[in-house]
Amino acid sequence: xxxxxxxxxxxxxxxxxxxxxxxxxxxxxxxxxxxxxxxxxxxxxxxxxxxxxxxxxxxxxxxxxxxxxxxxxxxxxxxxxxxxxxxxxxxxxxxxxxxxxxxxxxxxxxxxxxxxxxxxxxxxxxxxxxxxxxxxxxxxxxxxxxxxxxxxxxxxxxxxxxxxxxxxxxxxxxxxxxxxxxxxxxxxxxxxxxxxxxxxxxxxxxxxx
Length: 209
Ligand SMILES: C[S@@+](CC[C@H](N)C(=O)[O-])C[C@H]1O[C@@H](n2cnc3c(N)ncnc32)[C@H](O)[C@@H]1O
Hints:
The chain is α/β, with parallel strands linked by helices. It has helices spanning 7-13, 23-29, 33-41, 45-56, 73-80, 93-100, 143-147, 162-167, 170-179; strands spanning 63-67, 85-90, 108-110, 124-130, 150-161, 183-192, 200-208. The chain has a single domain (7-208), classed as Vaccinia Virus protein VP39 (Rossmann fold). It has a seven-stranded mixed sheet, sandwiched between helices. β6 (183-192) and β7 form a beta hairpin.
């Protein structure tokens, strides 16, 4: 396992907070993404987020949208816990190709979460988004569009790298969204999501109101 950041992980980490376009990075990274993150860094963000999801959702037939699904690590983990109705959305066609190979998603949608998300009339009881926030990804200003993907009352579980979380003051955005009646945050909890290095992130559990 590595002890320092290198390659694609270093490139993306250098982007810090905000949002932006990382599509080309993921297009190049797609074939080696999982081997790189799991074997070299001991990536477990998908496992932390899905464990929290499964603790709060007993209905395994619920329709779930995996936001920024990438190669499908979250979908695979949800399927292993018995959740059978999963769709994924991502900006990178090559990441989606990898996800398709897992055969755990019903529909895989190409979409950009920094714009209006077109769900083609689909509605979801829950959504989960792991590792899709921060520089080169989506910013806190895009949360309302992500939250809109689930029905009122629907469960939302996010996992956010601590650098953008702190740089962009995500908690203040959470409070604004509570104040305007968009959602209710149930839990924010810090953990380390790469076992080979110190890599803190935040688990966020909420319900759309
Ligand atoms: C670090 S990966 C996480 C993938 C997966 N959730 C996981 O835990 O392995 C981030 C993913 O977000 C996607 N992404 C980045 N910006 C996006 C955007 N604006 N709209 C949709 N997906 C985006 C990338 O293509 C990539 O697949």
